[in-house]
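Design job #97: recover the sequence.
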């Protein structure tokens, strides 16, 4: 590919193509690609991540779960490290939602250091979005339950990134939650 910048742009372009037409659940219907870009930005700017594999995985982290992308396709395009990291943070959509959420809490402590960073940034981006505006059809109770579940996941990721954990802690405290 030539350079790290080119590798990062290749992942961004791939993710944008795969998420084309998808929207976030906010009232504005924000383009979905804003989420993986936001996650990568949090890693780079707030956690100081310069690891190109981790930043590529951040851009690609929802492609297998939410599009027709296969793990083999990711490996072919971006290599085994990126594929493995995306696989580690991908939920099995064949499972019921409650089971997927339970497994995220259960598996968080045993995640690799890279996957922990990615999960922290993903949760931080999602929670900031929830604080900014409530998704269409979500009650205040559902928002609070999401924060409570996210706090349980994040508790298993502690000791990974003080800046991201501090930012998450502030969001949880706003909701009356502790890690």
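Job complete. Output follows.
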């Amino acid at each position: 590919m030539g350079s790290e910048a080119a590798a990062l742009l290749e992942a961004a372009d791939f993710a944008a193509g795969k998420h084309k037409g998808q929207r976030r659940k906010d009232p504005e219907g924000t383009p979905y690609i804003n989420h993986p870009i936001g996650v990568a930005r949090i890693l780079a700017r707030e956690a100081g991540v310069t690891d190109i594999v981790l930043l590529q995985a951040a851009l690609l982290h929802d492609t297998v779960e939410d599009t027709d992308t296969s793990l083999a396709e990711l490996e072919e395009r971006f290599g085994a490290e990126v594929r493995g990291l995306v696989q580690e943070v991908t939920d099995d959509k064949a499972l019921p939602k409650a089971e997927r959420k339970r497994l995220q809490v259960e598996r968080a402590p045993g995640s690799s250091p890279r996957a922990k960073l990615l999960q922290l940034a993903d949760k931080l981006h999602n929670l900031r979005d929830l604080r900014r505006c409530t998704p269409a059809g979500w009650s205040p109770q559902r928002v609070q339950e999401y924060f409570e579940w996210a706090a349980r996941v994040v508790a298993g990721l502690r000791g990974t990134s003080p800046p991201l954990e501090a930012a998450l802690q502030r969001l949880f405290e706003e909701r009356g939650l502790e890690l």
